[in-house]
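call fold(seq) -> tokens
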Amino acid sequence: MPTVLPATQEMTLASVQRDFVEWRKGRSHYAVWAIDIDTPALRSAIAAMRAHLADYLLPDYRRQAHVTLHLCGFPAATANLDDDFPTAMLQDQIAALQANAPPPFVLEIGSPDSFSSAAYFSVDDCARGILATRRALAGGPHPDATFPYTPHVTCGLYRGEFSLPMLIQHMTACDSGLPARLQIDRLTLMAYEAANIGGPLTSLCEFDLATRRIGILDPALMATLFG
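ret:
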């Protein structure tokens, strides 16, 4: 899986549209906890930015607007590999959310920025709801200890090596219609087909921040992935 890191170089990193078989090892889907923000305003903003950066982005990126909260792994009934995400781990995460997730909170989606590998819109965790959620899912107060985390809404992956300062300056000229403040009421467990680097997300289940209840959204795929 291509790693998304904060931009520390002057040039972008090129992504490649291929099946990373050495990463997925025959497994079909990868799961993440995320915030579903696939609203008309965000769809419009992302479409505008993708059109603005069309000469620089990998084509066919079809992920819906979302904010990734926690990387889970490859769903499985039981763990066989280190990056498997077994049913027992999912149950533990749901229990942790029921005990420690924040109440509904507000986010602000704002200005464009860039990692070395991807263009994105910045996310202001103004109510610290993301931080509280990540602490619950990580099971501790330091969820960023092993991997640097920047909340963001990905617009697309770069198709080549380009000047990063030039691209960031170019992005500011796009009229995206942002910033936008969003009320967040639910967290969603999502999965994507691991053979497709930019394929769409499927919502498996969601956690209601007000009621603390979990709801299954795709029972058939849940059964297939978790057994």
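Residues 87-100 form the longest helix (14 residues).
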